[in-house]
Design goal:
about 220 residues; 5 strands
Length: about 220
């Protein structure tokens, strides 16, 4: 299945380079380009891509605000943030806005292509080890998760609750399978059902849900 991609970056050279790179891969198709966040939002409404590769610093509307508007819309598009800047505030801002991944432009080109495919498949880009540190810090911030009682998670089985807890701890499907003495395929199926039942776009949102539900305690 072809992944339809919109490239949003204010540097034409970057967009051109990514377009040429993806042209060599038949499973990736660039269906539009945007030089501002506002253009990216309009393009998503026009062509409904699977993934937007989104820069952060752009004139006018930045990539974080554009991501927030895209995620609030009816489209099922996912956003992969690709930026020169990897400061924590940008990472947290992208996660709060609903991005499914965060990468920097100096990474290997093959890794960027792999990231597009991962996000298109509905998973989060953040590796399990990074998730443990990043999400724990993210949800500790007052602006990320307001002070409130744990929000109960309803409509899932006890086994799915166990899987959600382990996802919240940052475990991969393989690690979940080992912990629960099930196959990796079964662990993956449980995660997929959780995504559907909880209306989560990706694994990052499942992690946040686990924290909000009190299934995972924050490190002190």
């Amino acid at each position: 299945m072809t992944v339809r991609v919109v490239l949003a970056d204010d540097q034409p050279l970057v967009r051109s380079g990514l377009r040429v790179l993806m042209a060599d891969h038949p499973d990736l198709e660039v269906v539009g380009e945007a030089g501002t966040g506002a253009e990216a939002v309009r393009l998503v409404g026009d062509v409904s891509p699977d993934v937007v590769v989104m820069d952060i610093r752009m004139p006018g509307m930045d990539g974080i605000e554009a991501t927030r508007l895209i995620m609030a819309g009816p489209a099922t598009t996912r956003v992969l943030v690709l930026t020169t800047f990897d400061e924590d505030d940008y990472v947290y801002g992208a996660l709060r806005a609903g991005a499914s991944g965060f990468m920097v432009k100096d990474m290997a080109l093959d890794d960027i292509l792999a990231a597009v495919r991962v996000v298109a498949a509905g998973d989060a880009l953040i590796a399990p080890g990074v998730t443990r540190r990043l999400i724990a810090d993210f949800v500790r911030r007052p602006e990320a998760v307001p002070e409130r009682s744990p929000r109960p998670v309803e409509g899932i089985t006890e086994r799915e609750r166990e899987v959600l807890t382990l996802v919240g701890r940052g475990l991969s499907n393989t690690e979940i399978a080992e912990d629960l003495f099930i196959t990796v395929a079964t662990a993956k199926s449980h995660v997929s059902r959780l995504l559907t039942k909880l209306g989560a776009r990706d694994r990052v949102q499942l992690v946040i849900t686990a924290y909000e539900a009190g299934l995972v305690t924050l490190p002190r």
